[in-house]
């Protein structure tokens, strides 16, 4: 009986050993399979991470290039803005200088408005008559040249007189501002007011016209010219405003502090 039990026990032991070996082999196979699977997944994850990392590096590099280009563009833009500002300033100064020079060539001139042109007109005699009425004689030797110039009104012309000396022109202008002339006083068959003013260049005439319009619009009292420049004044006691260019017209406004 003892031998049978020993044999049975030995057989059972061999069976258990075989089962254990089989179990061990199965576990090892599963572990190796899982390991291969994990290695595959880890490899794929690593590849993905490398791809993402490369993409981030490329994006960062492009961002740096863009930032660098943007910085350079800002620098160039600022340089261009400075250049444009300088050019605009130079242009304004050049225009002002040109305007001043253009007006300077007229500093011995007067423009007479309101006298209709007649046949066989003698401007020499007409100027002598004007000087007589102004009590500031105008002789032939005082005048360099006189002639008619067209105006915006069809068929109407003004008289431009260039004096030999500016001092003489100023004296005649001073008297013309004190005494009001008419064509009747000059012995002409009509009865119209005669205006004697400084001879302004086209640009200054335009500025004067717009200044007068703004004076009316904003209820200012005075706009006048002196030495080829335009001036304005809101009231008798307010400060005098010089109008030397188009932008200065904005000074004629409704601001009560002016």
Automatic annotation (TrEMBL):
<dbReference type="InterPro" id="IPR004244">
    <property type="entry name" value="Transposase_22"/>
</dbReference>
<dbReference type="InterPro" id="IPR057251">
    <property type="entry name" value="FP_C"/>
</dbReference>
<feature type="coiled-coil region">
    <location>
        <begin position="6"/>
        <end position="90"/>
    </location>
</feature>
<protein>
    <recommendedName>
        <fullName>FP protein C-terminal domain-containing protein</fullName>
    </recommendedName>
</protein>
<keyword id="KW-0175">Coiled coil</keyword>
<dbReference type="Pfam" id="PF25298">
    <property type="entry name" value="Baculo_FP_2nd"/>
</dbReference>
<feature type="domain" description="FP protein C-terminal">
    <location>
        <begin position="202"/>
        <end position="252"/>
    </location>
</feature>
